[in-house]
Amino acid sequence: MADYLRPTSLDEALQALARPWTVLAGGTDFYPARVGRAIDEHVLDIGGIADLRGIAAEPHGWRLGATTTWSELRDAVLPPLFDGLKQAAREVGGRQIQNAGTIAGNLCNASPAADGVPPLLALDAEVELAGRAGTRRLPLSSFVTGNRRTVLAPGELLVAIHVPRPARDARSAFLKLGARRYLVISIAMAAATLEIEDGRVRAARIAVGACSAVAQRLPALEAALAGAAIDSLAERIEPSQLAPLSPIDDVRGSAGYRLDAAVTLLRRLLAGFAP
Amino acid sequence: MKIDFTVNGRATAWSGPPVTRLAAALRDDLGLTGTKVGCDAGDCGACTVRLDGRQVCACLVAMGQMAGRSVETVEGLADADGTLAALQKSFLDHGAAQCGICTPGMLMAAQDVLANGHAPTRAEVEDALGGVLCRCTGYGKIVEAVMACAPRVEPDPTAGAAVGARLPRLDGVPKVTGRDRFGADAVPADALWVRVVRSPHARARFGLGDLAPLRARLVSVLTAADVPFNGYGIYPDVKDQPVLADGLVRYRGEAVLALVGTRAEVLAIRDGEIPIEWQPEPPIYGIDAATAPDAPLVQDDKPRNLLLDGGVRHGAGDVFADCAAVAEGSFETAFVEHAYIEPEAGWARRVGDRIEIHASTQTPYMDRDEIANVMRLPREAVRIVPTACGGGFGGKLDLSVQPLIAVAAWKLGRPVALVYTRPESMAASTKRHPARVTAKFGCDADGKLVACDVRATFDTGAYASWGPTVANRVPVHAMGPYAVPNVRSWSEAFFTNGPPAGAFRGFGVPQAAIAHEAMMDSLADRLGIDRLEFRHRNALRAGDVTACGQKLEHSAGLAQCLEALRPHWRKAQAESAAFNASGGPYRRGVGVGCMWYGIGNTSMSNPSRMRIGLAADGTLTLFNGALDIGQGSNTIMTQIAADALGLPVAQFTLVTGDTDLTADAGKTSASRQTFVSGKAAENAGRDLRQQILRLANAGPDAVLSLDSAALTVRDGAEVRTLDLGKVGPLTGEGTFDPPTTPLDANGQGIPYATYGFAAQIAIVEVDIELGTVKVLRMVAAHDVGKAINPTLVEGQIEGGIAQGLGLALMEEYLPGRTENLHDYLIPTVGDVPQVECLLIEDREPLGPSGAKGIGEPALVPTAPAILGAIHHATGVRMHRVPVLPHRLREAILAREAKP
Fold it and tell me: Is B832 helix (H, G, I), strand (E, B) or coil?
């Protein structure tokens, strides 16, 4: 008989992680991977740990608890910086998935099409990993390392996502392309965060998802946007800026189409910042 | 673990493994089977419940997370005294429930917008319902029901006024309360369970190792050797599909072993513990591979991998040289999955020397005969008790769970159940035939069609299934609903190692319609004739002779359909032109698709028999062997029977499907139930009425009324009351078999007694930069002869359009790759357009009150209309469906690149 543990404190969870467990939170990736077979692994249910849930503003930024659901994020009162992430929250699965699925689960599942990753990359998010020996923080971009791969070590839990407070007023946006309206795995996604001053971009963070094994920032495009007037951003896009992307052909789209669509999404995304 | 939580306001204690899904606990342990399971993966939303006031998929919640929480299920919506909630009543009155399998999930999801306190916008409703898939309704009536959330007041029809009334479906209350019992809902507690071991290879030989260790852990392990006659198939002479494969598999998903034990026991067996040694061979995928000169054979006794070929020849041969305009094109379609939200499910038990099967099906009598054949039992020894059917669309015309549960229950003497998982359902079940249709049409300078030559090649997969039906039906329909004097049509179907292609709403005609409608657009464009007017000019009309040489005497209403569409067409053309004038990446277009569809079997007898019993106590019962799979035949048959008899619908009780209690009304397919079984019901009603009139010595216009055992007959001033206790019981019986004749070698004859006709227009918006297509609106004009129940007819049209939209834009089954409902996409509530239905009633004298069929006609014109609209919007004619965004974008770029 497999064990099922539902701790109420992080300590308890970390102590348990001295041996291998499968971590369960919202269940939206756990159960679909176990259709029609007995579930016989040891399950550590972190959904009962209050400290892992909720969004808090802190001096240097915001802390998004690991098991915060997409709905909670969508309904939270947050500055325009989070508009893009909220748009992504509305596009994850349907309402049922948004009400159960967690932000950290989306990151740990590490799908190339994870809807949360591009907007969080564009927010320069960091993940906080806790283990019995202590915690470490690292950029999201170094946490997810490949298709279904992260650097989460045995015994570690992703406990929070940290979004730094930008130096200036910042706005963000997100676009998702799928082959149907709801409940759809992305063909391509684009997310942008822009720090804007006097009608010009002071700093830009742009990420594209589902066009490589891990969603990628586009540093060349970000550089090209610096100083640009916000009503002419789309003109700054050049195909060469998409070099970090390495899309594949699959049932949802061809590699060439994904690159082409990414350019269109980016153009529309940036055009949307115009007043 | 013991968990205390609240279910529908009541404190509930549950104990079991904490990793148990909430859906399973509700259904299996608490008996709340109103929560349905469609995928166990959060992809379909059928199990939507409200957890602490928020909608979630009960299949994704661990019972370990439930302590202290509160869940609401569909069973909690109605009052304790059975009074329906406003939304449930609204669903009934708007026709928002068809098969009913998604209905509980829809109702629970809809609570999101009802809780808000203000009248929801359509967008809010769509957001709330976006996570629940429906395969029957096309969502329109569901959205209407939620937005209105109020009963639509229609008076109950009186005696003689049932036909034509918008009667709420008679079997609707159990569907909106969750009490309807589908295949997985009433499995006996002591049932053993089957888990089927299926082939991971499309083509392989295999050997079984030592099964003793498995047998020691289970109650039984069934192999091919346990099946008395190990072959089944639709046609009496083609029993080519084994119940369990015997050393050789021909498609991925084919059944190899049946593990039988308790549910926990069979699930606990790991794949690696099953001793099968596979020797995979290169599979034959696709028509080209199957027809290659050196192609290996899929079935050894089927030379050239050919299942069947045949065609229609009418008029002269190659007369294209004389045509003013000639169009040619070749079109390809994919495997399409039925994706009913209820996976195949049922249970069986042995009762003495009989076997009794409770399963979800479209065809109880064919199941009975097939199981008798597999079991080597007389057919009287087989009883089929159909459960509610959570969608079929042709996919539940083939056997699925039935032979395995029958063999196991017979052998073990215990009830045995089998419920397919979603991936299993998708891998094992039949699909729509992939087709390559090559068409050439020519017309004269006035735009009158002169000739056509159509060749349709089908991939029929590993086994015959309904392949012959597709191959026979398509040549008859391949020229479209037009008068064409010179016709050559040919179709052929080849075996491959794909999944068996079988029956799917339209039997190949939707694939052929994509070709002939593209040809109509092309010829019209060449001659500068409006696309709709070109079709109108060529429409088959009463008095015309078809390519089969059949003179259409009556009820050929295509021209009326097109006339009804004409104002919508002109308005839509003008609106899209105005929209496009402003430029930008979004382009609108308008397309029209036409179709005809022979109702019932092709040149084959397909009789129905109906009985109406009037018992000594006055109980009036329609014994109805026609299965309602959501389309509404329970209601339609009763409406027809009631008016034929002359008593109100409300006095009827229904006995449906059970092969021990009803008569054979054939299968629910080929759009035949309203026309064929409906006529039998009408005849049964008339028969009973005649008996009553004779007993009362009354004339034909007498008015009946029934009050318990007192049957009153008023004939003018004369009133006689019959005491049924003395004269009863009475039984009325009616049969009907549509008159057809065999087709000769040139396809000449009378393949069908009547035809449905339709035309639909689609208004689409194409994002030319992304290649995405949004269908904004559809207007559908259907000649149904007579709409027995307009709400149900509209429900068929809207649902057919949703499936046609899926065929056109998103659905493509790839074995091993899209075996779930997140990689295989069907339309959601946000993808379907608003649909306006125009019902044309060009009476068919053979049909009940003049009615024909609607099930399949609803779907056939949709994809052609959408493809025509895409062409109109972009100039690109797509030759392959689904039109996935990348395919359309690539085609748009290729067109732009042309000098």
Answer: coil
Give the contacts of B725 (CB within 8 A, at least 6 positions apart).
Answer: B616, B617, B709
Query: In chain A, which residue's Cα lies nearest the Cα of B887?
Result: A253
Q: How many domains does chain B have?
A: 5
Q: Could you give the CA distance from residue A64 to residue A53 in angstroms, rounded to a whole number?
A: 8
C-alpha–C-alpha distance, residues A170 and A80, integer Å: 7
**Cis geometry, peptide bond prior to residue B729 (ω within 30 degrees of 0):** yes
A122 Cβ contact list (under 8 Å, min separation 6): A84, A172, A191, A192, A193, A205, A206, A207, A217
> A interface mutation test: which of B60, B768, B826 has the most A CBs within 10 A?
B60
CA dihedral of B374, B377, B381, B384, whole degrees rounded to 10: 10
Judge: B422–A35 Cβ closer than 8 Å, yes or no.
Answer: yes
- Distance to chain A for B73, nearest Cα, Å: 14
The residue from B397, B419, B441 where one domain ends is B419
User: Residue B539 is part of which domain span?
Assistant: 431-601+745-897
Beta-carbon separation of B130 and A181 below 8 A: yes
Nearest to A4 among B19, B57, B585 (CB): B19
Extract the runs of DSSP E, i.e. beta strands, from B156-229.
192-198, 204-208, 220-222
Inspect the interface and report whether the beta carbons of A43 and B772 lie closer than 8 Å: no
**pTM for the model:** 0.98
Phi and psi torsions of B263, nearest 5°: -60, -45
Structural domain boundaries enclosing A201: 170-271
Query: Is B885 in Cβ contact with A187 (below 8 Å)?
Result: yes
Reading the block at residue B186, the tokens are 């009433």
Same-domain pairing of B719 and B752: no
CATH number where B12 lies? 3.10.20.30
The backbone torsions φ and ψ at residue A145, rounded to the nearest 5 degrees and listed phi first, read: -115, -10
Q: Which CATH number is B203's domain given?
A: 3.30.365.10
Q: Which of B695, B718, B736 is the last residue of a domain?
A: B736
B interface test, pick of A46, A70, A182, A237 with most B CB neighbours within 10 Å: A182
Do the Cβ atoms of B181 and B342 come closer than 8 Å?
no
Distance CA(B112)–CA(B131), nearest Å, equals 12
Residue of A nearest to B814 (CA): A251
Q: What is the 3-class SS of B95-111, one letter each residue?
A: CCCCCCCCHHHHHHHHH
Alpha helices, DSSP H, located in B614-773? 633-645, 678-696, 724-727
> How far apart, in whole angstroms, are the C-alpha atoms of residue B74 and residue B180?
12
Q: Which residues of B touch A254 (CB under 8 A)?
A: 886, 890
Class of residue A110 by CB neighbours under 10 A (exposed 0-12, middle 13-18, buried 19+): buried
By residue count, chain A amounts to 275
Contact A95 B57 (CB under 8 A): no
Please report residues of A whose CB lies closer than 8 A to that of B127. Answer: 95
The β-bridge partners of B718 are B715
Q: Is A251 in Cβ contact with B822 (below 8 Å)? A: no
ipTM of model over 0.90: yes
Q: Give the other-Cβ count within 10 Å of A40's Cβ.
A: 14
Q: Is residue B47 part of a domain?
A: yes
User: How far is the C-alpha of B785 from the C-alpha of B389, rounded, in Å?
Assistant: 27
pLDDT tens by residue, chain A, 275 residues: 789 999 999 999 999 999 999 999 999 999 999 999 999 999 999 999 999 999 999 999 999 999 999 999 999 999 999 999 999 999 999 999 999 999 999 999 999 999 999 999 999 999 999 999 999 999 999 999 999 999 999 999 999 999 999 999 999 999 999 999 999 999 999 999 999 999 999 999 999 999 999 999 999 999 999 999 999 999 999 999 999 999 999 999 999 999 999 999 999 999 999 98
Count A/B contacts: CB-CB distance under 8 Å.
Answer: 173
